[in-house]
């Protein structure tokens, strides 16, 4: 394996600037790594080797001419398959969109191209982002590089696994209830969910419009900030986009890396701990809190009583919005079309297509959402859920009066085994217990690796939440914690992961 695949995005950018390598060499190294190990990991649904190398060659030409587009110009990236990519398949992990090639780019993809990042390909995901394990992909499950018999989290397990397996230095994910942060926790990577509206959703195939957010998946906090500054900012094509500049994210990460948190108030959320949380996860979390205290932070306990209702609230609002969004997949305009018999009516074609094209989890959520929105039940279910959502947002407001950031474990457990929870949807949903509140309130959150749980030697994560539009706080505190943990470990956490060598690893 080439050494270039072990470098962070920031290190690759520095190497390119110093003339130590070329974008073509770096991109080819990652394509070789994908060819060697992705047969075992299955992080990618589509690899665009020809396109990535062509983009890399263009980057090298710009560098020679002194016309670079960004700091990350020439550093390759992977993109979750829920984002539209002009000329590349976008399937959302579903048979109903198999082979669909969009005629346009999502805004975040366009910004990647405008910044000069070669796109390696599209990563695997739970179908239409519905899941916490990437087992609900119509194209097969992704495997965790730490243990190929375990899940890589979801719905963005493909992006997290690609970064953890050194197949890509950077990736884009989306987070509706934790789908960037939870995969980050269980694969030992960094995942940031930006403030709602801070990154454009134009070209993102929507699961739940009021919850979805695009964000970075990386190996370090600095890399996350660098990528966030590329994709973030106002977009007139997205009506929910916030029309104001991003805070100084990279500067915040660099400041945090100095390791000084003097004056920062850290709020530990009492509701996100206790029974049902894996002891090893809690041990690593407490160690992280202690390291932040050692860096000068003040710790206070905060109570967010409405958080206990977040899971139920989310699983009413999300299916309701999903059932509305997925109504467009009707076999009439694009995507799969199944003819049940000669002369079948439009309704029969639609029914047969959805039966063949949607997986069980998608069908389950469509049925639940349609029921919650139906006449006579809207106020009792969807309407009440929106009221509780307001209470959760108020809990955050009250908590942020006492603390600058809030912290909790990212996920209750480490990665579970493939197939272990497939027949128990409720157990699967519980994996998002700690991450869902941030999506309901629209606040930013980052997951930083906190170490390996004693019980199984698998990664755990700590979640850092900040007020809306204060993403820089996540990066400052996250980088300070990362620096303290790196000093304690002596090497990046991913260096402790079992090596994946060869296509049958």
Automatic annotation (TrEMBL):
GO molecular function: ATP binding; glutaminyl-tRNA synthase (glutamine-hydrolyzing) activity; transferase activity
Top EC group: ligase
Chemical reaction(s) catalysed: L-glutamyl-tRNA(Gln) + L-glutamine + ATP + H2O = L-glutaminyl-tRNA(Gln) + L-glutamate + ADP + phosphate + H(+)
Record: active site: 80 (charge relay system), 155 (charge relay system), 179 (acyl-ester intermediate)
Signal peptide stretch: none
SUPFAM superfamilies from the UniProt entry: Amidase signature (AS) enzymes
Keywords: ATP-binding, Ligase, Nucleotide-binding, Protein biosynthesis, Transferase
GO cellular component: glutamyl-tRNA(Gln) amidotransferase complex
Domain Amidase: 25-474
E.C. number: 6.3.5.7
GO biological process: translation
Family: Belongs to the amidase family. GatA subfamily.
Function: Allows the formation of correctly charged Gln-tRNA(Gln) through the transamidation of misacylated Glu-tRNA(Gln) in organisms which lack glutaminyl-tRNA synthetase. The reaction takes place in the presence of glutamine and ATP through an activated gamma-phospho-Glu-tRNA(Gln).
Assembly and oligomerization: Heterotrimer of A, B and C subunits.
Entry protein name: Glutamyl-tRNA(Gln) amidotransferase subunit A
Species assigned in the record: Nocardioides agri
């Amino acid at each position: 394996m080439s050494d270039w695949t072990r470098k962070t995005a920031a290190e690759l950018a520095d190497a390119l600037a110093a003339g130590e390598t070329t974008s073509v060499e770096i991109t080819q190294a990652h394509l070789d790594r994908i060819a060697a190990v992705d047969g075992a990991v299955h992080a990618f649904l589509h690899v665009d080797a020809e396109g990535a190398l062509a983009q890399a060659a263009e980057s090298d030409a710009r560098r020679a001419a002194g016309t670079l587009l960004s700091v990350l110009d020439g550093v390759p990236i992977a993109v979750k398959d829920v984002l539209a990519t002009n000329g590349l398949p976008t399937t959302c992990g579903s048979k109903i969109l198999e082979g669909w090639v969009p005629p346009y780019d999502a805004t975040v993809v366009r910004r990647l191209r405008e910044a000069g990042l070669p796109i390696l390909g599209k990563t695997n995901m739970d179908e239409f982002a519905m899941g916490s394990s990437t087992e609900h992909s119509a194209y097969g499950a992704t495997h965790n590089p730490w243990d190929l018999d375990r899940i890589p989290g979801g719905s963005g397990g493909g992006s997290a696994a690609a970064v953890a397996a050194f197949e890509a230095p950077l990736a884009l994910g989306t987070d509706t209830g934790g789908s960037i942060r939870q995969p980050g926790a269980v694969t030992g990577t960094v995942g940031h969910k930006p403030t709602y509206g801070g990154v454009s959703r134009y070209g993102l195939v929507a699961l739940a419009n009021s919850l979805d957010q695009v964000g970075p998946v990386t190996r370090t906090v600095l890399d996350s900030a660098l990528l966030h500054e590329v994709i973030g900012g106002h977009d007139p094509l997205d009506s929910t986009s916030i029309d104001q500049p991003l805070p100084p994210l990279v500067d915040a990460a660099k400041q945090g890396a100095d390791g000084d948190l003097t004056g920062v108030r850290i709020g530990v959320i009492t509701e996100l701990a206790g029974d049902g949380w894996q002891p090893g996860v809690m041990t690593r979390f407490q160690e992280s809190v202690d390291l932040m205290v050692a860096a000068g932070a003040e710790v206070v306990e905060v109570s967010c009583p409405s958080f206990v209702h977040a899971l139920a609230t989310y699983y009413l609002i999300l299916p309701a919005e999903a059932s509305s969004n997925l109504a467009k997949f009707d076999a009439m305009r694009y995507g799969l079309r199944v003819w049940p018999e000669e002369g079948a009516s439009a309704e029969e074609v639609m029914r047969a297509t959805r039966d063949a094209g949607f997986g069980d989890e998608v069908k389950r959520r469509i049925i639940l959402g349609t029921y919650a929105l139906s006449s006579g039940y809207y106020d009792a279910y969807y309407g009440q859920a929106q009221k509780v959502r307001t209470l959760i947002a108020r809990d955050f407001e009250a908590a942020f009066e006492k603390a600058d950031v809030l912290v909790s474990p990212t996920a209750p457990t480490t990665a579970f085994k493939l197939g272990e929870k497939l027949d128990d949807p409720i157990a699967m949903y519980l994996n998002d217990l700690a991450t869902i509140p941030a999506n309901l309130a629209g606040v930013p959150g980052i997951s930083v690796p906190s170490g390996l749980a004693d019980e199984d030697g698998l990664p755990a994560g700590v979640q850092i939440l900040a007020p809306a539009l204060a993403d820089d706080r996540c990066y400052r505190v996250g980088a300070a914690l990362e620096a303290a943990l790196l000093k304690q470990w002596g090497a990046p956490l991913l260096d402790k992961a079992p090596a994946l060598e060869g296509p049958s690893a």
